[in-house]
């Protein structure tokens, strides 16, 4: 059975960050779903290219997708699977002395503002009266309530900002699209270029398993869950 059984037959999906480990696995999982009517994969290498640091490229990608969809409001699933952990020479930071303004600004631009601009341009493509699912990949370390170890200032703060953008967008999107569900998702520790320098011997999920987990969580979310922050197993994470 399709993992996304809650979406209509022939649903269309878009994945931003399709070159990433988790983004690529999401594209493969959606391509393998017989009920999926098409997966549109965007990255800095797609045509058109989408660069989070260039709003015009995000707008162009959304306009391109609009032309590919069967009609207005034809996008039922959007996942922004982009993200960067190592952003500068002392990143991720261990202590206050490691903070560098350029690194902090870059983290905000890539991990928070870029995905917010993706929501700005792509949420317009969601249906008005049908179920739709939107996820941004966040990280548990973006939780302020769960932060007991400190460190990783830029990544933590940019993911916390991403969560706030997502939550705020969910409130606005619900006004016109009451069946849409927007969520910030923590994929767990996953084998990828992003995690490789920091996981050491820690247990890490493979990208295909992580993708399946994320789609399962999304499938189970209801409009009352919209704007929330959830882990790979469906449990809610403290802000
Ligand atoms: N892996 C983990 O253990 C883990 C844990 C918690 C949260 N996460 C989150 O999960 C998400 C996916 O991570 P991942 O592990 O799959 O990492 P990844 O393999 O390094 O993928 C990161 C993706 O972000 C894209 N990206 C970076 N800068 C970009 C830009 N300027 N414009 C457009 N795309 C850009 C990369 O594109 P290029 O190929 O062009 O560089 C790539 O597609 C991230 O948000 C990460 O924070 C991961």
From TrEMBL:
<dbReference type="Pfam" id="PF00106">
    <property type="entry name" value="adh_short"/>
</dbReference>
<dbReference type="InterPro" id="IPR051468">
    <property type="entry name" value="Fungal_SecMetab_SDRs"/>
</dbReference>
<dbReference type="GO" id="GO:0016491">
    <property type="term" value="F:oxidoreductase activity"/>
</dbReference>
<dbReference type="InterPro" id="IPR002347">
    <property type="entry name" value="SDR_fam"/>
</dbReference>
<protein>
    <submittedName>
        <fullName>SDR family NAD(P)-dependent oxidoreductase</fullName>
    </submittedName>
</protein>
<dbReference type="GO" id="GO:0005737">
    <property type="term" value="C:cytoplasm"/>
</dbReference>
<dbReference type="InterPro" id="IPR036291">
    <property type="entry name" value="NAD(P)-bd_dom_sf"/>
</dbReference>
């Amino acid at each position: 059975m399709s993992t996304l059984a809650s979406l209509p037959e022939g649903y269309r999906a878009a994945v931003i960050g399709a070159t990433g480990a988790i983004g690529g696995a999401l594209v493969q999982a959606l391509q393998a779903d017989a009920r999926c009517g098409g997966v549109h994969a965007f990255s800095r290498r797609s045509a058109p290219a989408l660069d989070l640091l260039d709003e015009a490229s995000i707008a162009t990608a959304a306009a391109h997708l609009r032309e590919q969809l069967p009609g207005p409001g034809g996008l039922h699933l959007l996942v922004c699977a982009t993200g960067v952990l190592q952003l500068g020479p002392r990143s991720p930071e261990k202590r206050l002395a490691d903070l560098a303004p350029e690194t902090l600004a870059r983290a905000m631009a890539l991990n928070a503002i870029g995905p917010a601009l993706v929501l700005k341009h792509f949420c317009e493509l969601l249906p008005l009266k049908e179920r739709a699912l939107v996820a941004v990949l966040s990280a548990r370390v973006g939780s302020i309530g769960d932060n007991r170890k400190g460190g990783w200032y830029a990544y933590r703060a940019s993911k916390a900002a991403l969560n706030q953008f997502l939550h705020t967008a969910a409130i606005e999107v619900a006004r016109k699209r009451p069946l849409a569900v927007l969520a910030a998702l923590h994929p767990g520790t996953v084998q990828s270029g992003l995690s490789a320098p920091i996981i050491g011997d820690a247990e890490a999920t493979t990208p295909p398993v992580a993708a399946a987990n994320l789609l399962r969580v999304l499938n189970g979310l209801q409009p009352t869950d919209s704007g929330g922050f959830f882990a790979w197993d469906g449990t809610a994470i403290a802000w």
